Amino acid sequence: MTEKENVNNQDDALKDTVASDMENNQNPVDEQPKQEETPEAKESQRDNVSEKKSKRFKIRHSQEKALEEEKNKYAELNDKYLRLFSEFDNFRKRTAKEKLDLTITASENVIKDILPVLDDFERALQNMEKNHNEADIQGVTLIFNKLKDTLKKKGLEEIEAIGAEFNTDEHEALTMIPAPEEDKKGKVLDVIQKGYKLNGKVIRFARVVVGN
């Protein structure tokens, strides 16, 4: 064998050795088997899930509670507003009524003071009729009617008495006499002093004589 062939043989043997080593190094490494979860790990995961659910529940509960509080505040404010509005409306109506009553009362006092003047006018007219003084009668009658019309416009009206059923709401019985007829029992036979109403309210009762 020549020296050249010997060298070639050595090279081939070296190549085979290197190739064999490379194949051994390229063998796949067995993968590590996947470890199974331990009961402790599973329990920990369940605890985490439960904790998250608990947090979500607490947040939702807190939001619902806040909403309920806001609703209660709104209902309370609305109730206060309605009460205040009602009180103001009652105050306004009461004030208006008091003003009206004050005006009526003031008019009532003035007219009450004038009623004796009407009585004097009527007595004067009656005396003039007895004396047959026509000129004086006409003049005084004109003034008297003018005064009555003025008072009537202010709400004054005479209480009907003669021949009416005796009514304690309008009449004051000064005396009672035997009725001349059966159908006149309990009725007004005579008027001692006329009665008056002001805007439907009796300001002076009619003083009358009643049949018995």
Account of the protein in words:
- This protein is an alpha+beta fold and 212 residues long.
- The chain has a domain at 156-212: Nucleotide Exchange Factor Grpe, Chain A, domain 2.
- The protein has 3 helices and 6 strands.
- It has helices at 3-26, 39-131, 134-153; strands spanning 156-158, 171-177, 188-193, 196-198, 201-204, 206-211.
- A 3-stranded antiparallel beta sheet has the order 1-4-5. The protein has a 3-stranded mixed beta sheet with strand order 2-6-3, with no helix packed on it.
- The longest helix has 93 residues, at 39-131.
- 6% of the residues are buried.
- Mean pLDDT is 80; it is low at 26-30.
Note the total helix count: 3
Multimeric state of these chains?
single chain
Tell me the helix content.
Answer: 55-70%
Biggest beta sheet summary: 3 strands, antiparallel
The CATH homologous superfamily of the domain at 156-212 is termed Head domain of nucleotide exchange factor GrpE
Strand order of the largest sheet: 1-4-5
CATH class of the domain at 156-212: Mainly Beta
Q: What is the number of strand segments?
A: 6
Mean pLDDT: 80
Following the backbone from N to C, one meets helices and strands in this order, namely HHHEEEEEE
CATH architecture of the domain at 156-212: Roll
Please tell me what the overall shape is.
rod-shaped
Please identify the structural class as seen in this structure.
alpha+beta
SS strand fraction: 5-15%
Radius of gyration over alpha carbons?
A: 60 Å
- Poorly predicted regions: 26-30
Question: Which fold name is given in CATH as the topology of the domain at 156-212?
Answer: Nucleotide Exchange Factor Grpe, Chain A, domain 2
End-to-end span in angstroms? 184 Å
